[in-house]
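lol ok so funny story. i was supposed to be doing the assay writeup but got distracted and ended up predicting the structure for this chain instead. priorities right. anyway since i did it might as well share w the group, maybe its usefull for someone
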Amino acid sequence: MAFDPIHALVGQAAEKYPEHVAVQTPLGELTYGDLVARSDGLAHELRAAGVTPGALVPVITTDRREFAVAVLGILKTGAVFVPFDLDGPDLRLRDTLSGTAAEFAVTGADETERVNELLASAVPQARRLAVDLAVPAGGEPLTDPHVPAPDDPAYLFFTSGSTGTPKAIAGRMRGIDHYIRWETDLLGVEPGWRVSQFASVAFDAVLRDLFVPLATGGTVVVPPPGLLLDGAGLGRWIDGQRLNLVHCVPSVFRGLAAAAESADSPGFAELRAVLTAGEPLAPADAGRWFARHGERISLINLYGPSETTMTKTFHKVTPADAERELIPVGKAMPGARIAVLDGRGKPSPQGTAGEIYIRTPFMSLGYYLRPDATLETFVPNPLGDDPDDIVYRTGDFGRILADGSLEFIGRKDHQIKIGGVRVELGEVEHLIRAHPAVREAAVVPVKDGNGDIAHLCAFVELAWAVEPEEVGAHLSGRLPAVAVPRVFVPLERMPRTISGKVDRRALPAPILPQQASTTEYVAPRTPTEVTLARIWADLLPVEKAGVRHDFFASGGHSLLVMRLLSRVGSEFGVEIPLQDFLAAPTVEALAERIETAILTGGDSLDDLLDSLDGLDEEEAERLLKEGSA
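and the output, tada:
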């Protein structure tokens, strides 16, 4: 099979289109000619400093122009690039950077003091080389770039997996080449295509953001900071920038799909394809998208862990898929095979759930310096007897459908049992998202005093206020009773990781319905608590409210939360943010927040409350949401 180093493909594109813009960011642009000249210059510097093939070289920069230069320069020396995202937590950055034991690091020219502190604390021995775009590119072209073998390492990306402990995935050169050739052929990518760059540089999805356009004479287009969370604004930006191809996680696509329902949503005249990966794609989102745009813009659902190099299955989504409960992740791309196996390592019957295994020569090299972890998941093929026939055991559950497509159900570590009934949390989340009022959902198990799982709690991001009973009824005909969450907690915005996925570790503590009856009654002790207890009793089905009784455990739900906060504004003249209340939904905690707000002069709801007079309840709740945003 043909193989070209990815930096060689970029070099070929640069020879044809030296004046084309290679990378466009809010900070400025970089042409192909400049990209090649600067990466050649960096490669000279790295070699002169002593970098040799196989050496790990961290890349720390927020400017994607500098990032592209750094990655290409490092690859041209045969070294291994290790990207770090400064939006990540400090402790994780230090731990993972320290694990590289790197002797060299490439940074931007104008990085903050934080980068210096990070390098000094994690890799004090590392020599720093900077990409300085303010200095004109010059120097001699690199006439002898390193020529790698197909299986040589190219990069490290860190993943936490289910344990929370970062593991470094070592990717091989031919894995990049294989994927980029496949996607560009599938979509018919042409010179001049403008391609989004949304992914964090700390995840391997950035490889397709970067190299699909750069290997074909296109342009990497980077949005302004913060735009990914604004579906309508992002849609206008995509349209205004005349993007041809968008890669994104389904959470970002959800915002675009929701914005498509508005009368002034963009038409995306230049957009040719949207590829989603990293999370399940909700059928309701696909339905909203097709209702506005039809099938003119290809919508493709991808699946595959970083361990097998980006993604390994694909499914072209159709309007009919919007009627499914789950959208398939499709069939394996050329050069890969998928198997769904039962607990004995035998193929699961069609339609029956099992664990997903991936077989491909283009998978990664395993976990860097973690042979134990590598041997656990990169295993001999259970369907053969050749110990050298290695497959990747994903830890994901799925099923093969009648047409041979793969349907992703969820993570193996997201499967639980309640009262002896097996429940897949991912499936519950899929079905909750199918409700038209739900934008996003995250379901967590809640344990009782004995440590057993008692029930499920669903955190939901809503498009509009909805009664929990309505969502529960939507699920009751589709799930066993124990799998229907007993508590629904509304969040204004679901917490996200830097990759755009739901950050489950940042969710509030789940709620136990029995909490109200088992919590000792404590009477109100201050005038503020007395007033709140009266409001509590007016809104909730309780005779008397203890100051430590949980709002939701006492019968509260999403609509009552908004009524409660409205009453608080009327009674006390202060605004309590929804997230603050959800963090501690008791009379005691709310009274403390109100008194603090009064002491600091908080009266930001006065004007809003005045405007509520005469409005119906639904309109008042909408205004309250806007006021607390």
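The first strand starts at residue 21 and ends at 25. The longest helix spans residues 32-49.
back to the writeup now i swear
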